[in-house]
Write a structure and sequence with these properties.
By secondary structure, the chain is an alpha+beta fold. The chain has one domain. The chain is about 35% helix and about 25% strand. It has three helices and five strands. A five-stranded antiparallel beta sheet has the order 2-1-5-4-3. Strand 4 and strand 5 form a beta hairpin.
Amino acid sequence: MVFPKKKKEKKTTHNIEVGNLYDMNKDLVEKNIPDLTEEELNNKKELFINYLKDTNNYYYMLLCNDRKDYTILRLTVKLDDIRLNKLTNILVDECLINRGKVKSIELTESEDAVEIWLSIDGESYCYYFFPYDAAIIEC
């Protein structure tokens, strides 16, 4: 008995480069999210104040791994309301606005960091602000 030969099906594949989620978010933020106004930035300072009160650390990091940009903030005393306001102003004015146009400031879903999107030279970057005490070893 002779069986008919099965025809080989030609398989075609198409390569589509989609990038990663971070790159897609960068593009979406840059093209679709307007810069925060001065009033919106002032409202976001309250988010930082509450976050600093809740986390209550001496060290914090502002990190953008994409740009290899790391800033460590060291608090020398516990924060009262006056110092909280001063630190928040420094953070927003000297650490964020100083770097670029602020697009977004929000707590992460897990509330363990503040996610900040900045536009720098026409490209958006994600920064994270988070407690850093656990990474510091003082001898």
